[in-house]
Records
---
Amino acid sequence: MFQSVRPNSQIFILHKCDNPYVENGVVTTQPLIKPKYQIPATFGQPQEMVVDISVKVNEKNVTYTSLPAQLDISDSYSNGENIVVSDNKEAINSEVLSLKQKSIDIINSKDYHENLITCYDRILSDLNPELAEKKAQKEEIETLKNQMTDMSKNIEELMSANRLLIERLSIKTI
């Protein structure tokens, strides 16, 4: 738990960016426990307690603020960066495994979502015939463009063959 860390305790920082990575740091000062909100507790409910922890990471001192005192892992948005801070290696391992599984699930759901898109397109076409007409027009225009491109290539080849034939005939008649 963050309230239990002491100077020289190890802290793990998981950076959840496009290329995630983990950094290790060492606590530099004794964290002080304080209430999360600076207002008195109401109706006898205990107030949530937090700690600020100063950590030395890669020869640089970083302070992580308002970490839940009773937890050993917490999401944080330090310096505009989405990170997970923990004083427990197993908790970071679990977080990484969870994020990996989420990515695997997203990749595995690709076919399912492609099928949904096809179904939604069909439903939209049924509900809005003008959308179906526009889509059919787009497809027809694209087909015509492809045919024109093919015809243009064929004409160029024919012209080239014609020039070659005329050159050969010219040479034979001389």
---
Amino acid sequence: MRVQAEREIRKATKIGLCKSDIEYEGASLVKLIIASIGGGLAGAVGLGGGVVFNPVLVGMGVHPAVVSSTGMYMILFSALINSMTFWLFGNLYVNFALWLGFWSGLGIFIFLSIVGAIIKKYQRPSIIVFFLGIVIALSSILVPIINSISLVRAHRQGTNVWGFG
């Protein structure tokens, strides 16, 4: 409600408006609702909501840097809640999580520094869209392959992979 009220003030005063601002009405609202549902379904099967949500935001004209940071912002909360759940149930190996977190953070810092330098050199924020496309393509190919391999291994070992009975 606060965001909508601020949006109305911007419209009335014509101050602070950007052409990439999302209109939360009409076709844009329908696209956002569909993307949210699709993102939830994609996340439920292991692909991650950003596979659906990010392309929709890019298609709506949102700046690629904003799309990327929005996706990371959503992942932050999802990962935090998952980690807290594992920790509360005693299934989190804290030392391993800290080790993995350190190296992941270092990798993210290096990659963002490289991408930032490329964007600054070529003045093309659309480079983020290309990286986004590469990640989506790779995840669309690799997630089903890796899950199929895990399923076959579990079946060969006689493990109940579905958790029923």
---
Amino acid sequence: MKQLLVVLLVGMGVVTYGQKYASEKSLVSFYSHATIEDIAAKTTKASSIFNVATGEIVFSIPIKDFDFAKSLMKEHFNEKYMNSEKIPKSTFQGKIAGFQVDATGAQQAKATGKLTIHGITKDIDVPGTVEFANGTVIVKSAFIVKLEDYEIMRPQLLWKNIAEQVEVKIEFTYKPI
């Protein structure tokens, strides 16, 4: 985990003390509504760095660490859909704009950058919020991911079990580095 944070820090460049924040807590979840069965999973093992001075943000999500209600769902997710042995993580690298560092309460913001899922990288723009509270920063977002955009194939026999798109939610609580 520490090695990942070092890589994330180096990737963002060097800035002065007090502008960078590392994730203290994370929650990444996704939800898929399909005809036969809803699928939901979450993980608290994502890592992130956020530079409030520049708005730069990066995060990494270990795919194998998503928890499902059923162990068979987790097995299929990792082996049949995400190929997590070969592609073990998803990442985002970009910028958040539209927030004021000295403002209080949750502020509407927009993240723009490159999201990599299943080894495929796409440019995305997603809405979210940034909140500065008690020395921490909380970043939240909810957005839709279309499976075909990231070449995640749905088997023809199971098309009623798996939706064409999933809702992804992220929440990171940061503390100063």
---
Amino acid sequence: MNRIAIVEENQAQGVIKDLYSQIKNQMGIVPNVIKVFSSWPELFSVHMSLFQTIMTSETKLPRSTKEMIAALVSEINKCNYCATHHVNFMKQYGVNESVAEMIRKDYRKAGLDKKTLMLLEYAEEVTRHAHQVTDGDVARLKQLGWTDGEILEATAVVAEFSFINRVADALGVELE
């Protein structure tokens, strides 16, 4: 149960109603983790714009890779809500079911190519110890073929999910 009041879909008005409608059209539902922002319309609007820019806009990183990072970060942060959803999104965006499940359990055993594996190792390091990331860590990613833009995107996905995991867990957001 959410620890704070949320605006339900049938109660939504104005900006919240418009955003709920947009989200429902895109996803088929309005997830609870989105509803938790409903009592602060300005934050809701800004956060949705940021989330869509990072996760749903067509960018340099494929959506499947972004979902791998989102699921991994959520698992590291022990956010069951987000890890569960993003494992499902991985499958939706083309990641084999057994690979998606293994990324959640132990991504190093998921049979990923070296390039992707190293990006996930980087995501883990940023999640756990961003202050310890070195020039060498980023240089290794570049040597494998990751571009500056892709590295920035991966870092932004980690940051987004470090934020949303904490909101979801602290406010008791439950799976739909």
